[in-house]
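Example 9 (inverse folding). The structure is encoded as follows.
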């Protein structure tokens, strides 16, 4: 999708405001919901993904299964709200051995497991809104000893609220981040407990 696009600075793949926030995403719902709602804390439109089972209600990007994102930026940033329920998300990357590796984070796992093609890790979020900043290059290197090439796919499972999902070429300070990518969260950051 973005392979032949000039990539510089910030590249957004989801923003909760707008008429079609899920334009490039596919939605899978079984015993759950994916709705745009007004969040009372930030007084803004966000996406809520809720479900009985994390594996049956989710959104995935790109929408077409045969397409890939082709995003070269190694930093994934997600602005999400902890609903105090189980949730998970997964990022599929391509490494320099031309192997697709999946990284899956969840708040119900207690230990990191590294398999040949998938690495699962626990995550702990603060109450309310959190900003996750994930260095996919670092995770790829630590888990597999290979180099990150690009992100192929992002999948986000129930149950949480999402304001924005974007990629950056490097880690940006709060002052360097454009206003439209910020959320007044009192600088909350997610705690990612993954010992690789």
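The amino acid assigned to each position is listed next.
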């Amino acid at each position: 999708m973005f392979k032949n696009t000039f990539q510089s600075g910030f590249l957004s793949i989801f923003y909760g405001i707008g008429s079609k926030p899920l334009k490039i995403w596919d939605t899978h719902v079984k015993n759950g919901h994916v709705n745009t709602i007004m969040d009372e804390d930030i007084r803004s439109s966000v996406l809520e993904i809720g479900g009985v089972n994390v594996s049956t209600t989710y959104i995935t990007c790109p929408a077409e299964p045969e397409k890939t994102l082709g995003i070269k930026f190694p930093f994934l940033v997600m602005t999400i709200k902890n609903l105090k329920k189980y949730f998970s998300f997964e990022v599929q990357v391509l490494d320099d051995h031309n192997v697709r590796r999946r990284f899956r984070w969840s708040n119900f796992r207690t230990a990191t497991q590294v398999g040949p093609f998938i690495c699962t890790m626990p995550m702990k979020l603060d109450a309310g809104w959190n900003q996750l900043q994930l260095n996919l290059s670092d995770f790829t290197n630590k888990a597999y000893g290979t180099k990150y090439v690009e992100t192929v796919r992002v999948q986000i499972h129930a149950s949480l609220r999402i304001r924005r999902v974007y990629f950056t070429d490097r880690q940006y300070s709060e002052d360097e981040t454009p206003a439209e990518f910020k959320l007044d969260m009192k600088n909350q950051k997610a705690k990612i407990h993954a010992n690789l």
